[in-house]
Amino acid sequence: MMNIIVTGGAGFIGANFIFYMLRKHPGYRIVCVDKLTYAGNILTLQPIMKEPDFRFEKLDICDREGVYRLFEEEKPDVVVNFAAESHVDRSITDPSVFLQTNIIGTGVLMDACCKYGIKRFHQVSTDEVYGDLPLDRPDLFFTEQTPLHASSPYSASKASADLLVMAYHRTFGLPVTISRCSNNYGPYQFPEKLIPLMISNALTDKPLPVYGDGLNVRDWLYVEDHCRAIDLILHNGQEGEVYNVGGHNEMNNITIVKLICQELGKPESLITYVTDRKGHDRRYAIDPAKIHAELDWLPETRFAEGIRKTVRWYVDNRQWWEKILSGEYLKG
Ligand code: DAU
Residue 8: CB partners within 8 Å, gap ≥ 6? Predict the structure, then answer.
């Protein structure tokens, strides 16, 4: 039995993780901490709000007093930190909140872990901390040994947090693990990220804005595969270790956007090439050999199947994203 604090649990990956854990480990207690920023959606958690093994606490991870109070009440065994500002474009417009939540917030959580004791602090990080890879070197991949070389304020804030996590491990002996994932996709993703934005725009016959030449490559990972990886790391991962989690699935943006048009029966004439993102990373590609060898993890969802399921989910759950677009979700 475990009592797990999941921060950022009203966001995309956090919520999927909570659903996964409640299903997979009946009897585990999950305490979801979320500030409910624009990216958190309490409606996502509505179906589990009354579950006896679930608690929701509206709280900013930078609120030291609030975090300490929660640790005193809950005495968690494990903290999984998903809480983060995560959208690269927003970090280019306004970096400051990224530094606050992603770095200071992580520090506050780890101080609480040191003060009250913990069996594991798990930091959910990103492959973006490694920077990018050239398009003409398909032989290159990010491994856990690849030096940190962040490009955007977002990825620099995540890289800073990773350094802090490792420093708390070395200095205070905090039992930590870090996972660095590639691009996730699946249900409940906020419609500002590539896949849900393109699906919701296509469904409402709006233009599909492709940055630059559309040839940037990402390594797409179905969110449930990512959740399974974190579960394995919590149970069997080695303290002080980093695990890369990738989808073995490199695709360029334009291919994905065309595929979405095809799935939805929408014309490619909706595609509009727009000004490129500043400092736009060219290619991400993860080598997940370590987590495969040590924890026997491999992505199980093929992209063809994952994207079909995802498109279907957005078609069937139109209300969920329409309430986001109208702002109604912020009222709870
Ligand atoms: O690699 C993991 C990272 O993946 C996470 O750490 C980030 O939190 C997450 O946001 C994601 O970062 P990206 O910048 O790769 O994701 P995004 O969905 O914003 O963009 C994916 C690609 O699509 C990227 O090359 C930019 C492009 N793009 C994005 C948007 C929103 C477009 O061409 N048009 C768009 O409107």
Answer: 14, 33, 34, 40, 81, 82, 83, 84
